[in-house]
Description:
By secondary structure, the chain is of the alpha+beta class. Helices cover 25% and strands 34% of the residues. It contains seven helices and eleven strands. It has a six-stranded antiparallel sheet with strand order 4-5-6-9-8-7. A hairpin with a 3-residue loop joins β1 (65-68) and β2. The radius of gyration is 22 Å and the shape is elongated.
Amino acid sequence: MGTTQLESVPEPKYWHLKTVLSEALDHDFAVGEILPNERELAARFGVARATLRQALEQLELEGRLQRRRGVGTTVAPPRVGVAVGSARHSWPGESADGWEAVDAAEALPTAAVLKLLAGGSGSAASGSASASAVFAADQPVHTVRRTRVTEGQVVAAELLYVPAASVPGLSAIDAPAGPARARAVLRELQRLALDGQDRSVELGSARADDAKELDRLPGAPVLLVTTRYFTAGGTAAVSVATYRADTCRLTFGDEGVEITETRVAS
């Protein structure tokens, strides 16, 4: 990677720098190779470290770079797409959906969880589900934690909120804790008739807990996918899945928006 001074360019410096770095990644670096530190790169290109960080963030968002705790910035491997969206409506945990149950806990909902459960209605998704039910702060909610793993690497983490009223047959004796408890909640949820679901996607930044789970740095770009599941009585559950933005993309087609996970090409 040669020295290049970025002085008078018609586009933002960080964007031009991103292009230069991208070309260098194609020709001068091998997959998995660690890039020089920010101070060295900024001096080499004659830019402020803030400008360099913007360029690196864009390349990370595009999946060209990976920034890992204790390692640094490395060149990402080539990727191919693996569809993880579903053209049909289904409960979480059905049909080997690729998620692994981690844990489940029961507690009174926070204000944020209540807002999630109360938001939206199922009419758009199914044409038959009624408006969302009214949830009370004194009614417990099961929080099921799941992860999605591709080739040994966690690429997404999910929190699934299930009101206790949605799974009245759940027994604490059969599965008191851990993955077994999470699977028990999912099984009980699948006993309900699913009237429909809707999904929204937004770009966000990884919180500390998410970053640790996904092996990213806090503030790393992520895609937040919120899915609401509806029964005739309203909202039965809400999923909030956090995908690493460098390992997934959105595809638009006849069936709507598909979330596409990516994996290392073999």
